[in-house]
Protein backbone atom coordinates (compact mmCIF):
# COMPACT_ATOMS: atom_id res chain seq x y z
CA UNK A 1 0.00 0.00 0.00
CA UNK A 2 1.61 3.22 -1.17
CA UNK A 3 0.22 5.68 1.36
CA UNK A 4 -1.95 4.19 4.15
CA UNK A 5 -3.60 7.56 4.73
CA UNK A 6 -3.57 8.79 1.15
CA UNK A 7 -7.32 8.57 0.67
CA UNK A 8 -7.82 10.42 3.97
CA UNK A 9 -5.35 13.22 3.34
CA UNK A 10 -5.94 13.97 -0.33
CA UNK A 11 -9.05 14.68 -2.34
CA UNK A 12 -9.62 13.71 -5.96
CA UNK A 13 -7.92 15.90 -8.57
CA UNK A 14 -8.25 15.33 -12.31
CA UNK A 15 -6.44 16.57 -15.40
CA UNK A 16 -6.78 20.29 -16.09
CA UNK A 17 -8.39 21.36 -19.35
CA UNK A 18 -7.23 24.25 -21.51
CA UNK A 19 -9.59 27.26 -21.55
CA UNK A 20 -12.53 26.80 -23.90
CA UNK A 21 -11.80 29.93 -25.92
CA UNK A 22 -8.25 28.69 -26.49
CA UNK A 23 -8.90 25.05 -27.37
CA UNK A 24 -11.72 25.87 -29.79
CA UNK A 25 -9.11 27.53 -32.01
CA UNK A 26 -7.23 24.27 -32.60
CA UNK A 27 -7.71 20.50 -32.70
CA UNK A 28 -5.15 19.56 -30.06
CA UNK A 29 -6.10 17.50 -27.03
CA UNK A 30 -8.15 19.52 -24.58
CA UNK A 31 -5.96 18.86 -21.54
CA UNK A 32 -3.09 21.05 -20.36
CA UNK A 33 0.11 19.20 -21.30
CA UNK A 34 2.10 18.08 -18.27
CA UNK A 35 -0.57 19.11 -15.74
CA UNK A 36 -1.02 15.60 -14.37
CA UNK A 37 2.51 14.67 -13.36
CA UNK A 38 2.81 17.10 -10.40
CA UNK A 39 -0.37 15.73 -8.78
CA UNK A 40 -0.39 12.11 -9.91
CA UNK A 41 1.72 10.76 -7.03
CA UNK A 42 -0.81 11.92 -4.45
CA UNK A 43 -3.67 10.68 -6.61
CA UNK A 44 -2.11 7.24 -6.98
CA UNK A 45 -1.51 7.27 -3.22
CA UNK A 46 -5.28 7.48 -2.66
CA UNK A 47 -5.51 3.83 -3.76
CA UNK A 48 -6.31 1.80 -0.65
CA UNK A 49 -4.86 -1.49 -1.97
CA UNK A 50 -8.08 -3.04 -0.68
CA UNK A 51 -8.23 -6.75 0.06
CA UNK A 52 -10.61 -7.39 -2.83
CA UNK A 53 -9.99 -4.68 -5.46
CA UNK A 54 -13.23 -4.37 -7.41
CA UNK A 55 -11.52 -2.15 -9.98
CA UNK A 56 -10.36 -5.51 -11.40
CA UNK A 57 -14.01 -6.44 -11.80
CA UNK A 58 -14.82 -3.18 -13.53
CA UNK A 59 -12.05 -3.56 -16.11
CA UNK A 60 -12.26 -6.60 -18.45
CA UNK A 61 -8.52 -6.39 -19.13
CA UNK A 62 -7.72 -7.44 -15.58
CA UNK A 63 -5.47 -4.42 -15.13
CA UNK A 64 -3.22 -4.66 -12.07
CA UNK A 65 -4.40 -1.29 -10.85
CA UNK A 66 -3.29 -1.30 -7.19
CA UNK A 67 0.17 -2.46 -8.28
CA UNK A 68 0.81 0.29 -10.79
CA UNK A 69 -0.77 2.85 -8.49
CA UNK A 70 1.86 1.89 -5.91
CA UNK A 71 4.69 2.20 -8.43
CA UNK A 72 3.38 5.56 -9.67
CA UNK A 73 3.23 6.84 -6.10
CA UNK A 74 6.86 5.82 -5.65
CA UNK A 75 7.77 7.32 -9.05
CA UNK A 76 9.11 3.96 -10.23
CA UNK A 77 7.91 4.60 -13.76
CA UNK A 78 9.68 1.64 -15.34
CA UNK A 79 8.02 -0.84 -13.00
CA UNK A 80 4.69 0.94 -13.39
CA UNK A 81 4.93 0.69 -17.17
CA UNK A 82 5.76 -3.02 -16.97
CA UNK A 83 2.72 -3.70 -14.78
CA UNK A 84 0.54 -1.58 -17.05
CA UNK A 85 1.63 -3.39 -20.21
CA UNK A 86 1.25 -6.79 -18.58
CA UNK A 87 -2.48 -6.61 -19.26
CA UNK A 88 -2.99 -3.80 -21.78
CA UNK A 89 -1.32 -3.39 -25.16
CA UNK A 90 -2.37 0.23 -25.60
CA UNK A 91 -2.83 2.08 -22.29
CA UNK A 92 -2.42 5.47 -23.99
CA UNK A 93 -5.64 4.70 -25.90
CA UNK A 94 -7.67 3.53 -22.93
CA UNK A 95 -6.22 6.24 -20.66
CA UNK A 96 -7.67 8.85 -23.00
CA UNK A 97 -10.82 7.22 -24.38
CA UNK A 98 -12.21 4.71 -21.90
CA UNK A 99 -15.14 5.87 -19.72
CA UNK A 100 -13.35 4.14 -16.81
CA UNK A 101 -15.68 1.44 -15.45
CA UNK A 102 -12.76 0.65 -13.13
CA UNK A 103 -13.37 3.93 -11.33
CA UNK A 104 -17.08 3.17 -10.99
CA UNK A 105 -16.07 -0.09 -9.27
CA UNK A 106 -13.37 1.46 -7.05
CA UNK A 107 -13.94 0.48 -3.40
CA UNK A 108 -13.07 4.01 -2.29
CA UNK A 109 -15.96 5.17 -4.46
CA UNK A 110 -18.47 3.64 -2.07
CA UNK A 111 -18.34 6.75 0.12
CA UNK A 112 -15.73 9.04 -1.47
CA UNK A 113 -14.77 10.19 -4.97
CA UNK A 114 -12.90 7.21 -6.48
CA UNK A 115 -9.23 7.04 -7.37
CA UNK A 116 -8.36 8.78 -10.65
CA UNK A 117 -7.32 5.46 -12.18
CA UNK A 118 -7.60 6.68 -15.75
CA UNK A 119 -5.37 9.71 -15.11
CA UNK A 120 -2.76 7.56 -13.36
CA UNK A 121 -2.79 5.17 -16.30
CA UNK A 122 -2.21 7.85 -18.92
CA UNK A 123 0.51 9.47 -16.79
CA UNK A 124 2.40 6.18 -16.57
CA UNK A 125 2.29 5.46 -20.29
CA UNK A 126 3.14 9.01 -21.33
CA UNK A 127 6.13 8.90 -18.99
CA UNK A 128 7.12 5.49 -20.41
CA UNK A 129 7.21 6.87 -23.94
CA UNK A 130 9.20 9.86 -22.73
CA UNK A 131 11.83 7.71 -20.98
CA UNK A 132 12.09 5.04 -23.67
CA UNK A 133 10.49 2.26 -21.61
CA UNK A 134 8.23 1.38 -24.54
CA UNK A 135 10.29 -0.66 -27.00
CA UNK A 136 9.55 -3.23 -29.71
CA UNK A 137 9.28 -6.81 -28.45
CA UNK A 138 10.16 -8.92 -31.46
CA UNK A 139 9.76 -12.70 -31.08
CA UNK A 140 12.86 -14.80 -30.51
CA UNK A 141 11.84 -17.27 -33.22
CA UNK A 142 9.13 -17.56 -35.87
CA UNK A 143 6.54 -20.31 -35.87
CA UNK A 144 6.20 -20.53 -39.64
CA UNK A 145 2.44 -19.88 -39.29
CA UNK A 146 0.64 -16.97 -40.91
CA UNK A 147 -2.35 -15.00 -39.67
CA UNK A 148 -4.51 -12.37 -41.35
CA UNK A 149 -6.29 -9.82 -39.17
CA UNK A 150 -9.23 -8.01 -40.76
CA UNK A 151 -9.62 -4.58 -39.21
CA UNK A 152 -7.15 -2.30 -37.43
CA UNK A 153 -9.19 -0.97 -34.55
CA UNK A 154 -8.21 -1.74 -30.94
CA UNK A 155 -9.35 -5.39 -31.12
CA UNK A 156 -7.49 -6.08 -34.37
CA UNK A 157 -4.32 -4.31 -33.26
CA UNK A 158 -4.29 -6.11 -29.90
CA UNK A 159 -4.75 -9.50 -31.54
CA UNK A 160 -2.08 -8.71 -34.13
CA UNK A 161 0.48 -7.60 -31.56
CA UNK A 162 -0.10 -10.62 -29.34
CA UNK A 163 0.19 -13.06 -32.25
CA UNK A 164 3.27 -11.34 -33.67
CA UNK A 165 5.01 -11.55 -30.32
CA UNK A 166 4.08 -15.24 -30.16
CA UNK A 167 6.13 -15.77 -33.31
CA UNK A 168 3.49 -15.88 -36.02
CA UNK A 169 3.69 -13.82 -39.20
CA UNK A 170 0.75 -11.41 -39.05
CA UNK A 171 -0.72 -9.11 -41.69
CA UNK A 172 -3.40 -6.57 -40.77
CA UNK A 173 -5.88 -5.62 -43.51
CA UNK A 174 -7.63 -2.25 -43.25
CA UNK A 175 -10.13 -0.93 -45.80
CA UNK A 176 -9.38 2.72 -44.98
CA UNK A 177 -6.28 4.50 -46.22
CA UNK A 178 -4.66 4.57 -42.77
CA UNK A 179 -4.35 2.16 -39.88
CA UNK A 180 -6.42 2.67 -36.74
CA UNK A 181 -10.07 1.96 -37.52
CA UNK A 182 -12.40 4.09 -35.40
CA UNK A 183 -9.40 5.23 -33.38
CA UNK A 184 -8.15 6.94 -36.53
CA UNK A 185 -11.31 8.26 -38.15
CA UNK A 186 -14.03 8.01 -35.50
CA UNK A 187 -12.27 9.68 -32.56
CA UNK A 188 -11.67 13.44 -33.02
CA UNK A 189 -8.16 14.78 -32.65
CA UNK A 190 -9.14 16.81 -29.58
CA UNK A 191 -9.90 13.57 -27.71
CA UNK A 192 -6.78 11.70 -28.86
CA UNK A 193 -4.10 13.07 -31.09
CA UNK A 194 -3.22 10.56 -33.79
CA UNK A 195 0.49 10.66 -32.98
CA UNK A 196 -0.36 8.15 -30.25
CA UNK A 197 -1.58 5.68 -32.87
CA UNK A 198 1.32 6.38 -35.21
CA UNK A 199 4.04 5.50 -32.73
CA UNK A 200 2.26 2.26 -31.73
CA UNK A 201 2.06 1.30 -35.39
CA UNK A 202 5.80 1.91 -35.74
CA UNK A 203 6.43 -0.25 -32.67
CA UNK A 204 4.33 -3.04 -34.19
CA UNK A 205 6.12 -2.74 -37.53
CA UNK A 206 9.45 -3.08 -35.73
CA UNK A 207 8.13 -6.23 -34.05
CA UNK A 208 7.23 -7.71 -37.42
CA UNK A 209 3.52 -6.98 -37.93
CA UNK A 210 2.68 -6.09 -41.52
CA UNK A 211 -0.03 -3.65 -42.54
CA UNK A 212 -2.13 -3.58 -45.71
CA UNK A 213 -4.31 -0.48 -46.13
CA UNK A 214 -6.94 0.28 -48.75
CA UNK A 215 -8.02 -3.36 -49.03
CA UNK A 216 -11.59 -4.28 -48.13
CA UNK A 217 -11.97 -7.99 -47.59
CA UNK A 218 -15.03 -9.21 -49.46
CA UNK A 219 -14.66 -6.62 -52.24
CA UNK A 220 -10.99 -5.98 -53.08
CA UNK A 221 -9.97 -9.45 -51.92
CA UNK A 222 -12.41 -12.33 -51.58
CA UNK A 223 -12.67 -13.80 -48.11
CA UNK A 224 -12.21 -17.30 -49.48
CA UNK A 225 -8.98 -16.29 -51.21
CA UNK A 226 -7.71 -14.73 -47.97
CA UNK A 227 -8.45 -17.96 -46.12
CA UNK A 228 -6.36 -19.91 -48.61
CA UNK A 229 -3.38 -17.59 -48.14
CA UNK A 230 -3.22 -17.76 -44.35
CA UNK A 231 -3.23 -20.47 -41.70
CA UNK A 232 -5.75 -18.50 -39.61
CA UNK A 233 -7.88 -15.38 -39.90
CA UNK A 234 -9.08 -12.99 -37.19
CA UNK A 235 -12.12 -10.89 -38.08
CA UNK A 236 -11.99 -7.64 -36.10
CA UNK A 237 -14.01 -5.52 -38.49
CA UNK A 238 -16.14 -3.84 -35.84
CA UNK A 239 -19.84 -3.09 -35.62
CA UNK A 240 -20.09 -0.58 -38.43
CA UNK A 241 -23.72 -0.70 -39.57
CA UNK A 242 -25.12 2.54 -38.19
CA UNK A 243 -28.64 2.72 -36.79
CA UNK A 244 -30.71 4.91 -39.10
CA UNK A 245 -33.69 7.21 -38.56
CA UNK A 246 -36.41 6.34 -41.09
CA UNK A 247 -38.57 9.46 -40.86
CA UNK A 248 -39.86 11.78 -43.61
CA UNK A 249 -37.11 14.06 -44.91
CA UNK A 250 -34.27 11.67 -44.09
CA UNK A 251 -33.15 11.93 -47.73
CA UNK A 252 -32.57 15.70 -47.54
CA UNK A 253 -29.05 17.00 -48.08
CA UNK A 254 -27.47 17.86 -44.76
CA UNK A 255 -28.64 14.76 -42.85
CA UNK A 256 -25.68 12.43 -42.32
CA UNK A 257 -24.58 9.55 -40.22
CA UNK A 258 -21.99 10.56 -37.61
CA UNK A 259 -19.42 8.33 -39.29
CA UNK A 260 -19.96 10.19 -42.56
CA UNK A 261 -19.27 13.46 -40.77
CA UNK A 262 -16.53 12.79 -38.20
CA UNK A 263 -13.86 11.16 -40.42
CA UNK A 264 -13.72 14.20 -42.69
CA UNK A 265 -12.50 16.52 -39.94
CA UNK A 266 -9.84 13.94 -39.06
CA UNK A 267 -8.76 13.86 -42.69
CA UNK A 268 -8.31 17.63 -42.53
CA UNK A 269 -5.89 17.10 -39.64
CA UNK A 270 -4.08 14.44 -41.70
CA UNK A 271 -3.64 16.98 -44.51
CA UNK A 272 -6.01 15.30 -46.98
CA UNK A 273 -8.34 18.33 -47.14
CA UNK A 274 -7.96 22.03 -46.49
CA UNK A 275 -11.53 22.19 -45.18
CA UNK A 276 -13.96 19.36 -44.47
CA UNK A 277 -16.38 18.58 -47.35
CA UNK A 278 -19.15 18.42 -44.73
CA UNK A 279 -18.73 21.37 -42.38
CA UNK A 280 -20.78 22.95 -39.60
CA UNK A 281 -19.42 26.42 -40.26
CA UNK A 282 -22.16 29.04 -39.86
CA UNK A 283 -24.88 26.38 -39.58
CA UNK A 284 -27.44 25.41 -36.98
CA UNK A 285 -26.36 21.87 -36.09
CA UNK A 286 -28.48 19.17 -34.49
CA UNK A 287 -26.91 15.98 -33.16
CA UNK A 288 -29.33 13.10 -32.61
CA UNK A 289 -27.98 10.76 -29.96
CA UNK A 290 -26.73 11.48 -26.46
CA UNK A 291 -23.72 9.16 -26.26
CA UNK A 292 -19.99 9.62 -26.77
CA UNK A 293 -20.25 9.69 -30.56
CA UNK A 294 -22.83 12.44 -30.26
CA UNK A 295 -20.49 14.39 -28.00
CA UNK A 296 -17.73 13.97 -30.60
CA UNK A 297 -20.04 15.54 -33.18
CA UNK A 298 -20.77 18.40 -30.78
CA UNK A 299 -17.09 19.16 -30.20
CA UNK A 300 -16.32 18.92 -33.91
CA UNK A 301 -19.16 21.30 -34.80
CA UNK A 302 -17.90 23.83 -32.24
CA UNK A 303 -14.43 23.82 -33.81
CA UNK A 304 -15.86 24.23 -37.28
CA UNK A 305 -17.69 27.40 -36.23
CA UNK A 306 -21.31 26.27 -35.96
CA UNK A 307 -23.92 28.98 -35.40
CA UNK A 308 -25.58 26.76 -32.78
CA UNK A 309 -25.37 23.15 -31.61
CA UNK A 310 -28.26 21.16 -30.14
CA UNK A 311 -27.97 17.55 -28.98
CA UNK A 312 -31.15 15.48 -28.76
CA UNK A 313 -31.67 12.35 -26.67
CA UNK A 314 -34.82 10.21 -26.61
CA UNK A 315 -34.20 8.98 -23.07
CA UNK A 316 -34.75 11.06 -19.90
CA UNK A 317 -31.87 13.04 -18.42
CA UNK A 318 -29.71 10.76 -16.23
CA UNK A 319 -29.21 11.61 -12.59
CA UNK A 320 -26.19 13.43 -11.20
CA UNK A 321 -25.49 10.76 -8.59
CA UNK A 322 -25.58 6.98 -8.50
CA UNK A 323 -28.95 5.46 -7.61
CA UNK A 324 -27.97 2.96 -4.94
CA UNK A 325 -31.02 0.81 -5.65
CA UNK A 326 -31.25 0.88 -9.44
CA UNK A 327 -27.49 1.06 -10.14
CA UNK A 328 -25.65 -0.08 -7.02
CA UNK A 329 -21.89 -0.15 -6.62
CA UNK A 330 -19.85 -1.69 -8.29
CA UNK A 331 -21.96 -1.57 -11.48
CA UNK A 332 -21.26 1.11 -14.07
CA UNK A 333 -23.93 3.77 -13.48
CA UNK A 334 -25.64 5.83 -16.14
CA UNK A 335 -24.99 9.36 -14.90
CA UNK A 336 -25.33 12.81 -16.37
CA UNK A 337 -21.93 13.39 -17.95
CA UNK A 338 -20.46 16.71 -19.02
CA UNK A 339 -17.72 16.00 -21.55
CA UNK A 340 -15.18 18.51 -22.77
CA UNK A 341 -17.40 19.07 -25.81
CA UNK A 342 -20.38 19.95 -23.63
CA UNK A 343 -18.24 22.38 -21.66
CA UNK A 344 -17.71 24.25 -24.90
CA UNK A 345 -21.36 25.16 -25.37
CA UNK A 346 -24.53 24.00 -27.05
CA UNK A 347 -27.87 22.82 -25.74
CA UNK A 348 -28.82 19.31 -24.60
CA UNK A 349 -32.47 18.30 -24.89
CA UNK A 350 -33.77 15.08 -23.33
CA UNK A 351 -36.97 13.05 -23.72
CA UNK A 352 -37.63 14.12 -27.32
CA UNK A 353 -38.17 12.18 -30.53
CA UNK A 354 -37.63 13.41 -34.08
CA UNK A 355 -40.80 13.16 -36.19
CA UNK A 356 -39.56 14.52 -39.53
CA UNK A 357 -37.19 16.89 -41.32
CA UNK A 358 -38.21 19.90 -43.39
CA UNK A 359 -36.15 21.21 -46.29
CA UNK A 360 -36.00 24.13 -48.68
CA UNK A 361 -36.85 24.13 -52.39
CA UNK A 362 -33.35 22.88 -53.22
CA UNK A 363 -33.62 19.78 -51.04
CA UNK A 364 -31.45 21.03 -48.17
CA UNK A 365 -32.55 20.36 -44.60
CA UNK A 366 -33.65 23.51 -42.75
CA UNK A 367 -35.79 22.38 -39.83
CA UNK A 368 -36.10 19.40 -37.51
CA UNK A 369 -39.53 18.64 -36.06
CA UNK A 370 -39.64 16.95 -32.68
CA UNK A 371 -42.06 15.97 -29.94
CA UNK A 372 -41.57 15.36 -26.25
CA UNK A 373 -41.92 11.75 -25.10
CA UNK A 374 -42.38 9.91 -21.83
CA UNK A 375 -42.57 6.32 -20.65
CA UNK A 376 -46.09 5.21 -19.78
CA UNK A 377 -46.30 1.66 -18.40
CA UNK A 378 -42.93 0.93 -19.92
CA UNK A 379 -43.91 2.17 -23.38
CA UNK A 380 -42.47 5.28 -25.05
CA UNK A 381 -45.38 7.66 -25.68
CA UNK A 382 -45.62 11.09 -27.30
CA UNK A 383 -46.89 13.94 -25.16
CA UNK A 384 -49.73 15.74 -27.01
CA UNK A 385 -49.24 19.43 -27.69
CA UNK A 386 -45.44 19.34 -27.38
CA UNK A 387 -44.60 19.32 -31.07
CA UNK A 388 -42.18 22.01 -32.23
CA UNK A 389 -39.45 22.61 -34.74
CA UNK A 390 -35.87 23.80 -34.36
CA UNK A 391 -33.48 25.13 -37.03
CA UNK A 392 -31.27 22.43 -38.49
CA UNK A 393 -28.99 22.99 -41.47
CA UNK A 394 -26.71 20.08 -40.55
CA UNK A 395 -27.97 16.97 -38.76
CA UNK A 396 -25.77 14.10 -37.60
CA UNK A 397 -27.19 10.75 -36.55
CA UNK A 398 -25.24 9.31 -33.63
CA UNK A 399 -27.60 6.58 -32.47
CA UNK A 400 -25.24 3.66 -32.26
CA UNK A 401 -24.52 0.64 -34.43
CA UNK A 402 -26.47 -2.53 -35.08
CA UNK A 403 -23.84 -5.03 -36.21
CA UNK A 404 -21.03 -5.84 -38.64
CA UNK A 405 -21.12 -4.79 -42.29
CA UNK A 406 -23.29 -7.11 -44.37
CA UNK A 407 -22.82 -5.27 -47.68
CA UNK A 408 -19.18 -6.08 -48.46
CA UNK A 409 -19.73 -9.83 -48.67
CA UNK A 410 -17.26 -10.81 -45.96
CA UNK A 411 -19.83 -12.67 -43.83
CA UNK A 412 -21.47 -14.43 -46.77
CA UNK A 413 -18.20 -15.38 -48.47
CA UNK A 414 -16.90 -16.99 -45.29
CA UNK A 415 -20.39 -18.49 -44.71
CA UNK A 416 -20.24 -17.31 -41.11
CA UNK A 417 -22.94 -18.10 -38.60
CA UNK A 418 -24.60 -15.23 -36.72
CA UNK A 419 -26.06 -15.04 -33.24
CA UNK A 420 -29.55 -13.82 -32.33
CA UNK A 421 -28.33 -10.19 -32.32
CA UNK A 422 -26.82 -10.37 -35.79
CA UNK A 423 -23.22 -10.51 -34.61
CA UNK A 424 -20.76 -13.16 -35.76
CA UNK A 425 -21.14 -16.23 -33.57
CA UNK A 426 -18.08 -17.82 -31.96
CA UNK A 427 -17.18 -20.60 -29.55
CA UNK A 428 -15.25 -20.48 -26.28
CA UNK A 429 -11.97 -19.96 -28.20
CA UNK A 430 -13.45 -17.08 -30.24
CA UNK A 431 -13.54 -19.38 -33.29
CA UNK A 432 -16.44 -19.11 -35.73
CA UNK A 433 -18.24 -22.00 -37.36
CA UNK A 434 -15.47 -21.94 -40.01
CA UNK A 435 -12.33 -23.72 -38.70
CA UNK A 436 -9.38 -21.34 -38.50
CA UNK A 437 -11.52 -18.21 -38.69
CA UNK A 438 -11.86 -16.28 -35.43
CA UNK A 439 -13.69 -13.11 -34.46
CA UNK A 440 -12.77 -10.43 -31.93
CA UNK A 441 -14.24 -7.13 -30.83
CA UNK A 442 -17.52 -5.52 -31.77
CA UNK A 443 -18.06 -7.80 -34.77
CA UNK A 444 -18.71 -10.62 -32.31
CA UNK A 445 -19.69 -8.79 -29.13
CA UNK A 446 -21.69 -5.90 -30.53
CA UNK A 447 -21.01 -2.23 -29.90
CA UNK A 448 -18.93 -1.94 -26.75
CA UNK A 449 -16.07 -0.10 -25.02
CA UNK A 450 -12.42 0.13 -26.03
CA UNK A 451 -11.31 -1.91 -23.00
CA UNK A 452 -13.58 -4.75 -24.07
CA UNK A 453 -12.21 -4.54 -27.63
CA UNK A 454 -8.61 -4.87 -26.44
CA UNK A 455 -9.59 -7.68 -24.07
CA UNK A 456 -11.32 -9.46 -26.95
CA UNK A 457 -8.28 -9.08 -29.18
CA UNK A 458 -5.99 -10.52 -26.52
CA UNK A 459 -8.34 -13.41 -25.79
CA UNK A 460 -8.91 -14.24 -29.45
CA UNK A 461 -5.15 -14.25 -29.98
CA UNK A 462 -4.87 -17.04 -27.42
CA UNK A 463 -7.49 -19.06 -29.32
CA UNK A 464 -5.62 -18.55 -32.60
CA UNK A 465 -2.28 -19.44 -31.03
CA UNK A 466 -3.72 -22.66 -29.60
CA UNK A 467 -5.31 -23.51 -32.96
CA UNK A 468 -1.98 -23.07 -34.73
CA UNK A 469 0.33 -24.72 -32.20
CA UNK A 470 -1.86 -26.92 -30.02
CA UNK A 471 -1.02 -25.00 -26.86
CA UNK A 472 -0.78 -21.32 -25.86
CA UNK A 473 0.71 -19.29 -23.04
CA UNK A 474 -0.94 -16.07 -24.18
CA UNK A 475 -3.35 -14.52 -21.67
CA UNK A 476 -7.11 -14.58 -22.22
CA UNK A 477 -8.69 -12.02 -19.87
CA UNK A 478 -12.28 -12.68 -20.93
CA UNK A 479 -14.57 -15.30 -22.44
CA UNK A 480 -16.84 -14.53 -25.41
CA UNK A 481 -19.87 -14.73 -23.12
CA UNK A 482 -18.56 -12.33 -20.46
CA UNK A 483 -20.51 -9.12 -20.01
CA UNK A 484 -20.18 -6.06 -17.77
CA UNK A 485 -21.73 -6.46 -14.32
CA UNK A 486 -25.29 -5.21 -14.54
CA UNK A 487 -28.23 -5.06 -12.17
TrEMBL record:
Domain annotation FAD/NAD(P)-binding: ranges: 146-457
Keyword Amino-acid biosynthesis: yes
Dihydroprymidine dehydrogenase domain: residues covered: 40-131
Record pathway: Amino-acid biosynthesis
Keywords, sorted A to Z: Amino-acid biosynthesis, Glutamate biosynthesis, Oxidoreductase
PANTHER family to which the protein is assigned, alphabetical: GLUTAMATE SYNTHASE [NADPH] SMALL CHAIN
Name of the protein this chain belongs to: Glutamate synthase subunit beta
Source organism per UniProt: Streptomyces prunicolor
